[in-house]
Amino acid sequence: MPLFEPKPGALRPRRHGAPAPDRVPDRTASGTPRTLREELTGLLGAEKVLWRVSDLVRYATDASPYRFVPQVVVIAEDIDDISAVLSYAHGRQREVVFRAAGTSLNGQAQGEDVLVDVRRHWRGVEVLDGGRRARIRPGTTVFRANAALARHGRVLGPDPASAIACTLGGVVANNSSGMTAGTTRNAYRTLSSLTLVLPTGTVVDTADPLADEELARAEPALCHGLMELKREIEADPALVARIRAKYEIKNTTGYRLDAYLDGTTPVEILRGLAVGSEGTLAFIAEVVFDTLPLDRELVSALLFFPSLPAAAAAVPLFNEAGALAVELMDGNTLRASVSVPGVPADWAALPKDTAALLVEFRAPDAAGRAEYERRAAAVLPSLDLVAPVASVTNAFTRDPAVIAGCWKARKAFVTAVGGARPPGTTLITEDFAVPPSRLAEACEALLALQAEHGFDAAVAGHAAHGNLHFLLAFDAARPQDVDRYAAFMDAFCRLTVERFDGSLKAEHSTGRNMAPFLELEWGPAATDLMWRTKRLIDPEGILAPRILLDRDPRAHLRGLKTIPRVEAEADPCIECGFCEPTCPSEDLTTTPRQRIALRREMMRQAPGSPVLGRLLDAYGYDAVDTCAGDSTCALACPVGIDTGALMREFRHRRHGPFEERAAALAAERFAVVEAAARLAVAAAGRAGDRLPSAVTRAARRAVRPDLVPRWLPPMPGAAARRLPPTRRVGAAAVYYPACVNRIFGGPGDRPGPSLPEAVVALAERAGRPVWIPRDVRGTCCATIWHSKGYEAGNRLMADRIVAAAWGWTAGGRLPLVVDASSCALGLAREVVPYLSEDNRELHAELRIVDSVVWAAEELLPHLEVRRTAGSAVLHPTCSTRHLGDEEQLRAVAGACADEVVVPDDAGCCAFAGDRGMLHPELTASATEREAAEVAARPYDAYLSANRMCEVGMERATGHPYASVLLELERATRP
Fold first, then answer.
1. Please, which pLDDT band fits residue 698 given cuts at 50, 70 and 90?
2. What integer best gives the mean pLDDT of the chain?
C-alpha cells in the first residue's frame, strides 16, 4: 500500500437533505446496461463508448433547466461512426441525440438513450476564397471560427452571446442568431452549404452539383415526399402568406417551413429544413458559411432610462439611425452584472425600475464612423435619460476597453443573473419576439404578467429586432413552484401569440419547453406539416424524439432538474458550459461544469446509495487529480466560479495528517529540498534518463502516484549552482529568480546565458540594473503547496516569502521582479488568503511585477534591437492571462521576431508545475490541438514565459521552447 493513501471518504458530501426526486436511481449504479454496452463496444471500439454511471451523469446536463440521463454515451470520431450508430439504432429501435457544446437552453443536448458526443473529434476551420467563405466542422466554437476569419477581415453572421463556448453545429441546428444577426445575418440566411447524414445513413453534401441526382437514387421516396409537400404548401396562398409573415421577425419555433418556399429541389429544401431542426432530421457533419465584412470602426454607448418601456420606446430611433446592435437590459440584469469583473460596483445601487440600452454602430472606415457619431448625437437630446449612479455617463465612446466592458456585462446576462438566483433554484431562460414597433407594449405586458404570477424576472434582449429574453427562478423540487411556473407559461404563450402574433422562440429554437405550444403559435395546418416532415425524413423517429415535436401538453414540465446546494464556490453555477473550451482536461476526463454536475448528483443521493459510491470512486481521478488547477475556468465563467480552487480544496481534504506534516516540513526546510532537487537533476543529466525514470517509478508506487512526479525525458538540465552577481546599490528593482529557474536550466541545445543571467544582462543594457538578494535560496512563491492543497506548508512559505520580500524591497520602495509568470501570479495574488494579518499588511505595500512586464515597460524603450528571428510562435501561459499581461508578452516577442504567431488553439498546457509529470496524459490531451497548429509550419523561435510550460510545450511539439527574455537578450546582445 502506498505511504500516503488519500483519506477514505474525504470527498463524501458534508451535508445531506432528503434524497432528491430526480436523483439517478440505484439500478443505474452499474452504468450502461450490459448488452447495450457490449454491442456498441463491438461496433465502435471500447475507447468510443462511455458507460460508467459517472459518465452518464456528467453528460446528463446542459445549460437548460432539464436533466435526462442517457443510457450510453458514444464519442464519434467520423461519419463512419455516425452511420454505424444510426444503423444500430434502426436495428434495435433505439433513439439517438447528438451533443456538441451543451450550451442549449432548452434541453436539446440531452437524450434518454444513445447520446453521441460530436464535439471532441469534430473541430476545424478551413478559410476559403480569401475569407469570403469558411468550411467549419460542427464541434468548432463560434469564437474559434471568428479568430481564423479575423485575419482576413471577415466574420460569421450569427453572433450568439455564448460564442466562446457554443459550436457551429449547434448554431445551425438551432438557427441561433445573437446580438446583430437579426433575420438577415442568421444561419439560415448566411449558410452556403451543409453536409448532412440522414437517419438512414445517407450522406448529402448540398454543395455537390450531383447531390440531387444521388439523393434521388438513394432516397427516392424522400425526394418525392419533399416535392409533394412543397407543391401542397404553394397551392395554399393563405398558408404561403402566413409562412412568409412568420419569418419577418425572428422565429425559430418548429421547422423552417419557408425552406419549402425557398428551395427548388429536394436537396435545397433539406438544406433549409436542417437549419433550426435541433438534430431531429439529420446530423450536420460540416457547414460552409458565407461570411461578412468585419467592420472594425466602432462607436458605442450604454444609455440608462427610468424604466424598461422607456428604454424600449427609444429603440426605433436608433434603428432608423443605422445602429447594428441595440441591446436592452433591465434593472435586475444590470444589478446582477456587478458580479462580472470590470462592471462598475455602483450598479448594485441602481433603482429597481432602471433599464439600459447598449447601442453600437459599426463602420468600415473612419468616415463612416464619423457619420454614425453624427446620427447618434442627433438622437440623444430626444431621449429620457437618467444617471442614477456616478459611473453612468450616457455618452458614446470609441474606447475599445469601455466598449468591451459593456459587451461583457451584456453577454453575461444569463450567467450573471443565474449566478445571483436564490440557492437551490432552477433557472428558466425564455426567448420570444414581437414586431419591433410593439416592443415597448410587450415589455409592459410582460412585467405585468410576471407580477401577476409572483415572478421578478430579469429581462434583456436584442431590442433592435423585437427579441426579448427573460429569466425565471423557482424550486423544481417543490410542486407548488412547478405549478406556478406552468400557469405562467400558459399565460405567457397565449399573450405572445394572441396579443402580439409573436414568436414563442426567436433564436433559442423550440426545445423541450416550447414543443407543447407549437400548435398554439402555428395553428393545426402548419403544425401538421411539421409532423409530416419529421415522419418523411425520420420515419422510425430515432433522432431526438420529444425535443421539437411533442403532443404531451405538459412535456415542458417533464425532467425539470433540481439544483441541490453544493460547496459555496460552485453553488452559483448554472451549468452554462462557458468554462469547458478553456479546460485542459475537457477531452481527457471532466470539465468544470461536469465536476460541479457530478457533485450535485452526489448531493441528490441518499447516504450510502450505490450510485453515490460509484460517483465517489471515479471522482478522485476524473475530477480532482486531473484538474490542472490553473483556474482558467474562472476567467471564462461570467461570474468567476473557480472550480480549480474547489479541486485544490478537495486535494487538501484528501490529505492525512502525516502527509500534511511532511509537506510543511518540506516548506520549513526548502533550502535543503531545493539543493537536493538541483543536484538530482544534475545527476540525472550525467547518468542518463534510465536511472531517474526507474527511481521515480519506484517512488510513485511506494508513496502515491499523484504525489511523486515521473521523470519524463527529455528533461532540462540543472541550473547553474550560483546566480549571477549583482549589486544592491543603484538597483532599479529587486530580481527574484523563481525556484524553478534555480533548479532547472534552459533548453539544452540553446547556447548562451541562463535566464537569470539574461535578465541581469538586459537590465544592465537598459540602464535599469537589478539586484538579486543572496538569501533567495530556500524561498518560494508557495505555489508548490498551494496547487496541491497543503495548507500548513502554503501558509508557512507564504509568510516567509512576503516577509523576505518586504526586507529586500526596502518596504516596497523597489519593485520585486519575478521571472516566472506562475510565480508572479502566486506572489501577487494567491498567497494573500494564507498570510498572517501582519504579513497581509506588508504584502499590500509590495509591487510585484512579472519579468516580461518589466522588460516591456522598463527595458524595451532603452534597448537597441540588433537582430531578429524571422518568425516566432508564442505560448501565453495561463498565469499571463490571469495577470492580464498578454499584451506585454506579445510586445516583447514582437521586438524579437519579424512575425509573431499565437496559435488560435493556444490554451493551458496543463503542465502546471509538476502536474504534467504526475499525469502526462493530461498535458498530452491539453496540448494536442495547439501542437498540431504549431506543427503545421516551421518557426525560427518557440517562446513562452514559464519554464515548466516551456517543458510541457517541448514535449507536445518536439521543439525547444524558451523564455521570451532569452530571445530578447539574444536580439539586443552587442
1. confident
2. 94
> Radius of gyration of the chain from Cα atoms?
29
CA angle, 58 then 64 then 67, to 5° = 45
Q: What is the pLDDT at residue 4?
A: 65
Q: Which long-range contacts (CB under 8 A, 24 or more apart) does 484-488 make?
A: 484/453, 484/454, 485/428, 485/557, 486/554, 486/556, 486/557, 487/453, 488/449, 488/450, 488/453, 488/455
What's the grid cell of residue 892?
A: 516583447
pLDDT of 3 over the 70 cut: no
Is 706 within 8 Å of 625 (Cβ atoms)? yes
Strand intervals (E) in 308-466: 325-330, 355-363, 426-433, 458-462
End-to-end C-alpha distance for the chain, whole angstroms: 58
Name the maximum alpha-carbon separation found in the chain.
92
How many angstroms separate the CA atoms of 425 and 136, rounded? 37
DSSP per position, 492-503 = HHHIIIIIH--B
CB atoms within 10 A of CB 367: 9
C-alpha separations of 438 from 181, 312, 416, 434 in Å: 20, 9, 28, 7
User: What is the grid cell recorded at 932?
Assistant: 498540431
Instruction: Tell me the per-residue pLDDT of 613-665, one tens digit each, with 9 for 90 and over.
Output: 999 999 999 999 999 999 999 999 988 899 999 999 999 999 989 889 999 99
Q: Among 647, 649, 651, which residue's Cα sits nearest to residue 589? A: 647
Q: Count CB-CB contacts under 10 A for residue 171.
A: 37
Q: How far is CA 898 from the centre of its chain?
A: 32
Q: In the block, which residue shows the cell 502554503?
A: 794
Please state whether the predicted TM-score (pTM) of the whole model is above 0.85.
Answer: yes
Q: Taken in order 725, 727, 728, 734, is the CA torsion positive or negative?
A: negative
Pairing state between β 426-433 and 325-330: unpaired
Looking at residue 626, its amino acid is: T
Q: What is the pLDDT of residues 873-902, one digit of tens each?
A: 999 999 999 999 999 999 999 999 999 999
Q: Mind giving me the DSSP string for 100-165?
A: SS---SSSTT--SSEEEE-STT---EEEEGGGTEEEE-TT-BHHHHHHHHHTTTEE-S-B-TTTTT
